[in-house]
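debug: dumping io for the single-chain case to check the tokenizer round-trip. Nothing else runs in this session.
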Amino acid sequence: MTNVFRQCFMVVALVAGLVAAPMAAQAQAADAAARNGAGGVRVLVIPNGETVLASPVAGRITAVNVGLGRPFRQGAVLISLDCGEPEARLAMATADIASATEEYEAKLRMQGLEQASDVEVALAASAVAKAKAQADLFKFQTSQCLIRAPWAGQTAKLHVRSHMTVTPGQPLLDLVRSGVLLLKLNVPSRWATSLKNDQAFQVAVDETGKTYPARVQRINSRVDPVSQTIEIEATLLARHAELLPGMSGVATFPGMP
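debug: decoded output
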């Protein structure tokens, strides 16, 4: 039994060694490639701004003015909601302002004739202020029926369609901001003392087969203890129409240790 156990143990050890050896060799090769810049560092292309627009109010969508991938300008109306109810409330509040103002002015005239007290005048003034506050509230609610673009960009995803009824906080659109694209990558932690902000490097993007100049923009303040890497963000030096967020490639840093 002892000999059988020893033979099994030797077989297991041999298999483990055969599995571990290639993994160690791959790790050493990757480390060497990062050192001499032959393999470079994997990089992801990201937008310089993105957000999810949500509905600020409950209502029915009357128009969707964007399509998937279509560009839009800053301030453009992307989605319109039915504003019939808040508009009616605003009209009522406007009428209340006119009525309260007339009442207040009448109290002022009566006060001059000593037919109205200071308290009555103050109450009339308060009614005017309340009516104006209600009008401001309904005016704000009416403005929320038009969902405008926070900046120029493109639509990445549509969560809704025309004539759908939405609730407050429900996602409407995923937006990607136009402009020079950013890069996100993790570099070896041994570069920490050599890597600097504004450092130039090259990025070869897989999808286009082209190489683009880039520059380091931000360096994380700590090292990832598991991967022993530092996360950095960089920016391309110009806009390139063929590049899209989500593409990936290899970044090469000349002269890094």
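debug: round-trip ok. Residues 8-39 have pLDDT under 50 and may be disordered.
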